[in-house]
Amino acid sequence: MCQWAFIQYSSQNLHHRGTCGGVAMHLVWDLLFLITVMLNYACILGLRASGRLSLPVRRFVAAPVTRMCSTDTHENLAHLKASIEVAGSVVRELKAAAADKDEVKAAVDALLVLKAELSALDGTPVDVRSKTNKKKASKASATASEPSEEDGVCPRMEDLVNLCKRKGFIFPSSEIYSPFSGFFDYGPLGTELKNNIRQAWWREFVQSREDVVGLDSSIISSPAIWRASGHVDGFSDPMVDCKESKLRYRADQVFWAKLEQQKEGGSAVYVSVMEADDMQATAQAAAEKKAKEAGFIGPFKPLSALKDLTEAADTDEYARIPSPATGQEGGLTAPREFNLMFQTSVGAVEGGSSVAYLRPETAQGIFTNFANVQRTARMKVPFGIAQVGKAFRNEITPRNYIFRSREFEQMEIEYFVSDKEGEWEEHYKRWLEDSWSWLLRIGLREDMLFRDVKSGGLAHYAKACTDITFRFPFGTQELMGVAARGNYDLTVHANGSGEKLDYFDQAEERRYLPHVIEPSIGLDRLLLALLTSAYHVEDVPAAKGGTEKRTVLALHPQMAPVKVAVFPLVNNKAELTDKARALFSTLQKRYSCEFDTSGAIGRRYRRADEIGTPYCITVDFCSLDDDTVTVRDRDSMEQVRMAISDVPAFLSKKIDGV
Ligand code: ATP
User: What is the pLDDT, as a whole number, of residue 314?
Assistant: First the structure.
């Protein structure tokens, strides 16, 4: 969006080129231009490590092009070429630093804009794409963000991010200053969508069941909880720093491999790649390139299996592994543990005794309230306690948009079961099945959903764990986890607090600490998975003949942020708008609705399709005579005529299923 605003702005300026000339003005502009370029470049380099690049990058390109309005074509060319040089260096810097994909894209886009301006000015065809970016750029310029065959049926991340920003689903937090990495704000549509997901989850797993009740525990609680649960000592990720670029990585997200010459005692090259679905191929290509550069002559042994950095930490090989940022061997510090909990101070006095933590998960509030809830709600094992709420993790590398952020929302259930041999397995399986089928029912694509049954690497107390993973545009990653945690949590809190947390089973006349099954899902990740499942672009017949692109969010009607859009056919006939408004007011009592009067009906349909509105109702001239309207279905695009009085029942059946 901002990029768009900039492009429009710069081309407007170009149209007015030469209207504010003058020699003195020239000199001032020249000086300003030079200073701005230098300052911006320094600023970009300086801010690279802190991940706050987007705004400076935008400012960088805005400066030279804005200046174009005051100079003649000859000078423009010189300045543009200079700007392109600098913009090119920025792109190279960012790539070398393995900067965030969006940052690199913003810088590449900026470079392409400058090159396009150059092409427009000097009239010679300019290849606006670098060799490596040719493919990407041609994809980026495809109309209506059409998914390519190469992408299969999974939408591209940039299309989702663009839609979310353009339509007001999600904004980067603090954007007017400079996006604050790892934090996001949900706009009007995003808020509705989030509410719908949250409500559907609560309805399904709490209100529709007799054996699960809800809880809303505090975000900040006694630090004793986090000491007992093991979070203070152990809730950490291994972190490494690139010594040169100062970029920081999670050691278990950086993978490395070795390509070794076949001959006895032959040399080897090492490569590192960031975790991704295609990292094997990336590593292979990088290793072959590196071997060629080193002048190695084959044959080679097969590329060694990819391992993460933690697996090399104590070996001599660690010094050979290159930094992903600079490609320099030995460029990384040794992994060290970084605690992910955000600290704060409680009370007026700062110091060790006032330190508290923002909860990194909602689960501990459930465990510490186990006895309160069990007693007051008179629950009998097996039973569950559910909680939806914010969690905070100071992620080392927040990335992939809302997938891994520093503030997010979790929907968790702790389901307490008997400690008898063989009991937990049945519940564990059932929670896995129930979670899976609910995810499909609310609209996740089955071909994108997988199970990852953990066989090793479980916590010492855990009995089993399965991740439900989803094929996000950036790779297949954890969407939710279902874990059998034994009675570890209740045990540590009973020990830590000195309170009895055991359960008295009246039927069996015995006391025991229940075991727990924990289905846990991130609301933001689920929202991203729903958008990924729902987004598509298709060819549809155009009003003027031929076809046109239609972008649709085929969200489940219950998830759709707006359920119904009401349109008067024209907006300059009071009878029509009054009738449409009356219907809108009736429907608004039950559903989130939109009233749209601007543009042709076809355009209004497209706008509604793009945000996933399942039903559009048009009030036309016939409506004035016979009290009927046209109801149009988002997915089939079919329109049916029905009496206004039948609309509420129709929608109720379609949206609520009753
Ligand atoms: P990951 O391995 O991706 O860091 P995790 O295994 O640490 O996740 P859990 O502690 O099991 O995650 O948290 C439960 C759920 O909370 C996850 O399945 C995920 O949906 C969500 N979640 C965890 N961390 C984040 C985050 N940083 N941003 C958004 N959602 C998150």
Answer: 86
Q: How confident is the model at residue 485 (pLDDT cuts 50, 70, 90)?
A: very high
Name the residue type at position 159: D
Q: Which of 565, 559, 587 is nearest to 655 (CA)?
A: 559
Q: Is the pLDDT of residue 281 over 60?
A: yes
DSSP per-residue letters across 245-314 = T--EEEGGGEEEEEEEBSSTT--EEEEEEES-TTHHHHHHHHHHHHHHHTT--S-BPPPPPPEEGGGTTT
Contact 493, 514 (CB under 8 A): no
Ligand 1 environment, Cβ below 6 A: 361, 393, 395, 404-405, 408, 410, 478-481, 520-522, 524-525
Task: Report the nearest-CA residue for atom 28 of ligand 1.
Answer: 404
pTM above 0.90, yes or no: no
Angle among Cα 448, 452, 455 to the nearest 5 degrees reads 170
Q: What mean pLDDT comes out for the span 468-491?
A: 97
Rounded to 5°, the CA angle 260-264-265 comes to 65
Is the Cβ–Cβ distance between 362 and 391 less than 8 Å? Answer: yes
Assess whether pLDDT exceeds 50 at residue 296. Answer: yes
Q: Phi/psi zone of residue 144: left (φ > 0), alpha (ψ -120 to 50 degrees), beta?
A: left
**pLDDT at residue number 7:** 27
pLDDT at 131 (0 to 100): 27
Neighbours of 437 (CB within 10 A): 10
Q: 525, 527, 530: which to mutate for ligand 1, most atoms within 8 A of CB? A: 525
Q: What is the per-residue pLDDT for 265?
A: 78
Ligand 1 atom with the shortest distance to the CA of 481: 18
Ligand 1 geometric centre to CA of 457 (Å): 16
Best residue among 478, 480, 518 to mutate for probing ligand 1's pocket (most ligand atoms within 8 Å of CB) is 478
Least confident of 190-199, 453-462, 508-517: 453-462
